Amino acid sequence: MHAGGTRPRRAADMKKDVRILLVGEPRVGKTSLIMSLVSEEFPEEVPPRAEEITIPADVTPERVPTHIVDYSEAEQSDEQLHQEISQANVICIVYAVNNKHSIDKVTSRWIPLINERTDKDSRLPLILVGNKSDLVEYSSMETILPIMNQYTEIETCVECSAKNLKNISELFYYAQKAVLHPTGPLYCPEEKEMKPACIKALTRIFKISDQDNDGTLNDAELNFFQRICFNTPLAPQALEDVKNVVRKHISDGVADSGLTLKGFLFLHTLFIQRGRHETTWTVLRRFGYDDDLDLTPEYLFPLLKIPPDCTTELNHHAYLFLQSTFDKHDLDRDCALSPDELKDLFKVFPYIPWGPDVNNTVCTNEKGWITYQGFLSQWTLTTYLDVQRCLEYLGYLGYSILTEQESQASALTITRDKKIDLQKKQTQRNVFRCNVIGMKNCGKSGVLQALLGRNLVRQKKIRDDHKSYYAINTVYVYGQEKYLLMHDISESEFLTEAEIICDVVCLVYDVSNPKSFEYCARIFKQHFMDSRIPCLIIAAKSDLHEVKQEYSISPTDFCRKHKMPPPQAFTCNTADAPSKDIFVKLTTMAMYPEDHYRDRLSRGTGSTDRIENLRKIWVFLKTAFHARLRCMCTCNRCTFCICQNFLNSDLLQSVKNKIFTAVLNRLRARVAEWGAMLLADDEGSITHQVHAVSSVEDSIFMESSHGPLFLEARHVTQADLKSSTFWLRASFGATVFAVLGFAMYKALLKQR
């Protein structure tokens, strides 16, 4: 495992530039070192102080702009010196190897002065520079080594010569390296071991890289790690050499031909001790760490713009990643995460993100452990309610690294504006929010828990401090899997704007409490009577004795007056899981709010059941190709997309119009025949038949998005209606066969 290649660095990986300050006693050669570096020759005349030099990024080995600043005691004040120290990223203390006084000043003056001007917890890295090595035949290292051992902020010592150009470029390379790859946060020289923060960061990196969670990095995992960090794979022999080095030094560093955590940490300790700490820093920065070994905000919270009236959902790739994460930690393969398995999953987090309320927000098994469906549901809820937290959590799990994406933002889908959905009368969203409103103790929490399949017996086992105001689960609507997110709204006189925003409203009242319905009616009139948000009234605790509600009209009459569906009886007091019919109805209303709004306008015509059945048939045909499969693409190539485009095409709309025109003309012809036959009778009969034609014309309605076909012929006899229905069915069947044939033709043509 080595830095065999150089990975292109992101903007947040490193500092934008490096500022190097040279200090020391007068006449030790500070200015000469700078001028020799720039001109690549020793200057004959040396000014008192060199101007600030900027080295472009494309010239430096680390591709970072570097500023070199000289200090002259003769030309600068102490205040200017202090200012330069505060601006520097690294300081080179220059001494002359042939001048013992300048060496003594390193510890008596310069190091204490620098430390006074910097925070104790963030010491500036120091480089000791022994200049004028060309004037002596001995080394000053014996004198300098005790100083280096005494002061841990000293990164290294370099002996050089400005006159002979010896080690000049190396000096500034080490200075730049001390800033970009500092040793201080990684390693403690006194203890000769890595610091706890570094061990913690590398342990998280190891657990993320251990994709099968067996406690070792096998050859495939090591190669993947090498490629994402250094952009180059390791040859099989190189992998074996790495393992042999580990085996030679520690006994349990390799197990079952895989590198253990101890072996992984040993390798990085070895890199640091051998002066190759840039290798460790490359790994740390690739996994999102900054110089203080904290995950950077840029890594955890990538930029994400969400327009108003749009929601956030996980996309297909995110669900696949979460599925693999679940499988990785479900060691006993029981499709549920035990407390120990969940704790192991969260070891890559700095804290436990889920509290006990989560177990009452999503589905669990009989033991109360979060199931696979519950796991995905909780992530879906977090994405919908708090997308920034979702990005943070995905960052801890290493989503962008393991999926090789730019950031966690690639895991999200931002839905289009809800107003566009209403205009187009169709939605691409998969998560729908239902606000549950009612008086305290009316049964709202029971409705939420029923969504998770829990009856009253299971609900009574929930502790008060573990209750949740949210519940989320999947619901199938016409073969499509959708998420229904229910939110228990606390009782109050007026709802806030945030409490009104939702896709569907569930108004709950207790049939055994005479004062319960009044609150629902009042909230409906205040906030939803003139709204296009669909509402459904739930008559909770229907197993109890129903009492008359203390309101001006009954709940049934209230619903009829406001053209709403009748109250839905509901109870959690069942032997098995409560019925899910109301949740399907709520999700359907959320998916098709315009249908519900039209139903409210047209309710009472006596044709509701017929309209609903026709709409269900049409929607089912539109989704039949997609039953139990969630099409997450917009490729316009798959069978579903071809059918979807064809169903919305002008050609099909034209065919549908012609079919209905033919049906209407046939009805007109039949009425004309009746008129001729009854001409001898009274004139009122003819008027009655002509009125039937007008009624038929007014009642035929076609909606192209969802396809509900509204047919009413209130004054046509039963026999006539049957005859018309026959031709309608025949025409409708022909259209369906045409759609199927066209889809199969396109699919076969695409395969060829």
UniProtKB/TrEMBL annotation:
**Domain named EF-hand: which ranges?**
317-352
Q: Which GO terms describe its biological process?
A: establishment of mitochondrion localization, microtubule-mediated
Stated name of the protein? Ras homolog gene family member T1
Gene3D superfamilies from the UniProt entry:
EF-hand, P-loop containing nucleotide triphosphate hydrolases
The answer on whether this UniProt entry bears the keyword Repeat reads yes
Q: How does it sit in the membrane?
A: Single-pass type IV membrane protein
Asked if the keyword Amino-acid biosynthesis belongs to this entry, the reply reads: no
Stretches that traverse the bilayer:
726-745
Q: What is catalyzed by this enzyme?
A: GTP + H2O = GDP + phosphate + H(+); UTP + H2O = UDP + phosphate + H(+); ATP + H2O = ADP + phosphate + H(+)
Question: What is known about its subunit structure?
Answer: Homodimer. Interacts with the kinesin-binding proteins TRAK1/OIP106 and TRAK2/GRIF1, forming a link between mitochondria and the trafficking apparatus of the microtubules. Interacts with RAP1GDS1. Interacts with ARMCX1. Found in a complex with KIF5B, OGT, RHOT2 and TRAK1.
Organism, per UniProt?
Phyllostomus discolor (pale spear-nosed bat)
Q: State a single Gene Ontology molecular function.
A: GTP binding
What the entry lists under NCBIfam families is as follows:
small_GTP
Top-level division of the source organism's lineage? Eukaryota
Where in the numbering of this chain does the Miro domain appear?
Answer: 15-181, 429-592
Q: Which UniProt keywords apply?
A: Calcium, GTP-binding, Hydrolase, Membrane, Metal-binding, Mitochondrion, Mitochondrion outer membrane, Nucleotide-binding, Repeat, Transmembrane, Transmembrane helix
Q: Per UniProt, what is the name of the gene that codes for the protein in this document? A: RHOT1
| Pfam families tied to this protein | EF_assoc_1 (PF08355), EF_assoc_2 (PF08356), Ras (PF00071)
Entries under SUPFAM superfamilies matching the protein: EF-hand, P-loop containing nucleoside triphosphate hydrolases
Subcellular location as annotated: Mitochondrion outer membrane
Identify the PANTHER family for this entry.
Answer: EF-HAND CALCIUM-BINDING DOMAIN-CONTAINING PROTEIN 7
Which family is it part of?
Answer: Belongs to the mitochondrial Rho GTPase family.
GO cellular component terms, alphabetically, are: mitochondrial outer membrane
What does the function comment of this entry state? Atypical mitochondrial nucleoside-triphosphatase (NTPase) involved in mitochondrial trafficking. Probably involved in control of anterograde transport of mitochondria and their subcellular distribution. Promotes mitochondrial fission during high calcium conditions. Can hydrolyze GTP, ATP and UTP.
